[in-house]
Amino acid sequence: MPLPFAHVSRRTILTRSAGFFGLIMSGFFTSASFAALLIKPTPRQALGPFFPDDGDEVNSIRENPDPNLPISQANDQDLTFVKGLKGKAQGQMVYLSGKILDEKSGQPIPDTTLIMWSASASGRYNHKGDEGTYSFPHPKTGKMIHRTHDPYFQYWGKAVTNQQGEYWFKTIVPGFYPIDLKSGLFRPSHLHFKILSPKTPSFVTQLYFRGDHIPNNALNQELLPKDVVILDAGLTPEEQERVIVDYAPDPSGKMKDELVGHYNFVIPG
Ligand SMILES: [Fe+2]
To answer: Are residues 143 and 254 in the same domain?
Structure first.
């Protein structure tokens, strides 16, 4: 892939850089507007039909017994097991962390609630509305895939950002699933998010997976341009890139079983 400045001479870059940094040094940009120049907002995407609402779940998972809490917020941020059950969720484990940032100021937003939900490793939601095709042939190998419930997967969880605006989740790579087998439309593996910040009452989006270590990932990347929800949302290819997260083994070696990914949500101003 050519570098963004491949067509610009080194001298031009130096001249432009000097002018740009000159403007910064002269105070032309405030720190807020400078930050805003560097970050782009996370594109909004559809909520989808499987948001965890009370009464919609097939198997109730409520680690927090407070009856006043909506079920979407009743669980913690580690989705790889369910408290009280002796078993681990199926699938490739991933650790996702990052910050919630404000687009206008570029500053982290503390005390922000993130609700994350997804399908199981075989692509089935813990939701009564997920009653589509339960089994389908893998579009590449022809091997049958059975979308099943995983009793040890937590399906949804909640995280709250700290004073630095940081969050983390531990989960699994959900399965991809068909939307329309006749037309060959699938949804690639994805995580859903609803973000409730003090400034923004509800920001909804989805994140996708890139990384050599994720099972079926080549297929996922092939599916992404055909993703009907992304197309419906009218995202440009550049905006699609902004919702794909790279996952790789932990460079520190501390996490042996999880792939790690990093993502900063930038909440539109
Ligand atoms: Fe989904």
So the answer is: yes
Pair of tokens at residue 67: 């009856």
253: number of Cβ within 10 Å = 7
- C-alpha–C-alpha distance, residues 229 and 243, integer Å: 13
Q: Are residues 161 and 96 in the same domain?
A: yes
Whether 177 is catalytic: yes
The verdict on 44 and 123 lying in the same domain is yes
pTM confidence score: 0.86
Task: Measure 48 CA to ligand 1 centroid, in angstroms.
Answer: 6
* Ligand 1 centre distance from Cα of residue 26 (Å): 48
The answer to whether residues 228 and 162 belong to one domain is yes
Instruction: Indicate whether 29 and 50 sit together in one domain.
Output: no
Based on the fold, state whether residues 18 and 64 are members of the same structural domain. Answer: no
Active site residue 247: no
Å from CA of 252 to ligand 1 middle: 31
CA 125 to ligand 1 center in whole angstroms: 8
Structure tokens at 208: 């996708």
Give residue 9's domain range: 1-38
pLDDT at residue 18 above 50? no
**7 C-alpha to ligand 1 centroid (Å):** 40
> Residue 190 catalytic?
yes
Q: Which of 158, 129, 148, 126 lies closest to 60, judged by CA?
A: 126
Catalytic residue (choose from 124, 127, 147, 192): 192
For residue 215, the domain's CATH number is 2.60.130.10
Does residue 249 sit in the same domain as residue 230?
yes
Rounded CA-CA distance 241/237 in Å is 6
pLDDT at 259 over 60: yes
